[in-house]
Amino acid sequence: DTGVSQDPRHKITKRGQNVTFRCDPISEHNRLYWYRQTLGQGPEFLTYFQNEAQLEKSRLLSDRFSAERPKGSFSTLEIQRTEQGDSAMYLCASSLALNSGNTIYFGEGSWLTVV
Amino acid sequence: AQSVSQHNHHVILSEAASLELGCNYSYGGTVNLFWYVQYPGQHLQLLLKYFSGDPLVKGIKGFEAEFIKSKFSFNLRKPSVQWSDTAEYFCAVTAYNNNDMRFGAGTRLTVKP
User: Which of A5, B11, B64, B93 is 20 to 30 A from B35 in CA distance terms?
Assistant: First the structure.
């Protein structure tokens, strides 16, 4: 499978613990995105990388959230001191340049449940 | 920043009925528009997209959408739905000079057999 892959698919954690999600984008894509989706809502933009540079961050991304893409390939999203409100699906996506008619491709997401 | 509104939260249709899901965006400049579908337990999949040219865009599975610039709309249509079209549908927009995609809240479509 050469699509966007995310790991783990499901994570249950206790409030206050740290969690990390990994995303492997489509190999030739230089752009990588993180979104959050809660039940009954559309995906909400969190952050975006072009190669290894993090170019944009949403105000939804509090200081407990950090994302990296150290070599411009895979990315990690870490949530520190998790809260129950962090329970959501975290979606990763990748693309080539958007203004050239390219499409954003999404992974299957990582479900986080904070208990 | 651009934003998207989907007015129908939940639509229930019988098989063979026609479908139209509304999508309006707010952004004054050039936009790219998308419809994604999310079947139960699956990831978001692209149905169709508009970048330029013919404002009537045809996608997979018999779906089409029409970009009406004066109304800031990009409604999704299908002449005859099937039970397998039961899913959540998301409209999304990217502004030409931005690099993030903004989604509407989604419309849940239930097709009764």
Answer: A5
CA distance B107 to B54: 25
- Token output for B111: 């097709």
Q: What is the CA radius of gyration of chain A?
A: 13
**Closest chain B residue to A37, measured at CA:** B105
Query: Cα–Cα distance between B13 and B82 in angstroms, integer?
Result: 9
| pLDDT tens by residue, B40-91 | 888 899 999 998 899 999 999 999 999 999 999 999 999 999 999 999 999 9
Neighboring chain A residues of B101 at a CB cutoff of 8 Å: 33, 45, 93, 98, 104
What is the number of CB-based contacts under 8 A between chain A and chain B?
A: 57
Q: What is the DSSP string of B11-67?
A: EEEETT--EEE--EEE-SS-EEEEEEEE-TTS--EEEEEE-SS-SEEE-GGG-EEEE
Taking an 8 Å cut-off on Cβ atoms, the answer to whether A107 and B43 are in contact is yes
Does the distance separating the beta carbons of A40 and B99 come in below 8 Å?
no
In terms of CA atoms, which chain B residue is nearest residue A50?
B99
The amino acid occupying position A42 is G
Exposure of B108 in the CB half-sphere (CA atoms within 13 A): 8
